[in-house]
């Protein structure tokens, strides 16, 4: 099934590899902003070789999915899409269901765990370099200007300012990213405002999370704020089954780093420990 119809008539481009057996886990992936699911082929292949399932889709406004590029009117559109994707494959999922989110996908994953309309029974969640804040503080005037623009022109877009050099130490990946026609290099005012709002909501509702959560932090990340991630971790319930892992010498795109195998092995070990597979 290459596409799933979501709210607003938007078609989501989806890829599904079923688990080898009813006991094997299935991973539902959420990619980051401006990229798409094609950047996770190696990671998905690694777990598929273990017999684990993978569900990965291009977020609305990204990759091969429909919708205005990097535009949402409400962040819950992303959360509703997770519900729809889960419902589509639910009958084929008997083993443990794991949620994995990277960067903005990490923010979406966290907000999904906090969302009172969530229906997917995730047994465990892993987020990598979650986008809970930017490494460089946004000037106050830019925030003010954005709030002004979004009232009258929500689809107004500007360059995202992302420097591909700080994504990975793997030069081939950086070149691939720069030349990938599906990579989006702009962001809309409405998307930006919803991201800022949900940064706040993620912190406010952190104490409500009851799904085991493991967070991976790229030690040399120059895109997202590691200090903010650590503050978020401290806000999680003290009784929650959780862990925090630092990845030395990793830039932001942890699944496309030169030493990504280290991360993949760690995730495999954690999932096995959490699910007893």
How are the elements arranged and paired?
Blueprint: E1 3-5, E2 11-17, E3 26-30, H1 41-48, E4 53-57, H2 76-89, E5 97-102, H3 104-114, E6 124-128, H4 140-152, E7 157-159, H5 171-179, E8 186-188, H6 189-204, E9 213-218, H7 226-235, E10 242-247, H8 260-275
Parallel strand pairs: 3-4, 3-5, 5-6, 6-9, 9-10
Antiparallel strand pairs: 1-2, 2-4, 7-8
Helix pairs in contact: 3-6, 4-6
Task: Please explain how this structure is put together.
With 277 residues, the protein is an alpha/beta fold. Helix content is 35%, strand content 18%. The strands form two sheets. An eight-stranded mixed β-sheet has the order 1-2-4-3-5-6-9-10, sandwiched between helices. Helix 3 packs across helix 6 and helix 4 (140-152) packs across helix 6 (189-204). It is globular, with a radius of gyration of 18 Å. The chain starts with a strand and ends with a helix.
